[in-house]
């Protein structure tokens, strides 16, 4: 199943995909950057996906990039704080995007999950 709901309207701009066994969640990279910036603002330890994002490595350098610690990413995403988001136009969408990513990771937990950046 391919879900590109969070990329619609952003065609032609950078996209990020979570891929697992034929399932794919495609989101606009602007959403993902904003979510990860928010998590860094929450003073979470820079490990896992936050470390890769902070140092601009991981999926930026090596795409598709295998997510090694799915539990950590799920835990980090659950710390997302909508109250720290200033862009009011994004607020509603961002909560939905975070929930969709967490659900994708949970539903595909037993599979290898990759992040692909285009």
Automatic annotation (TrEMBL):
This is Uncharacterized protein.
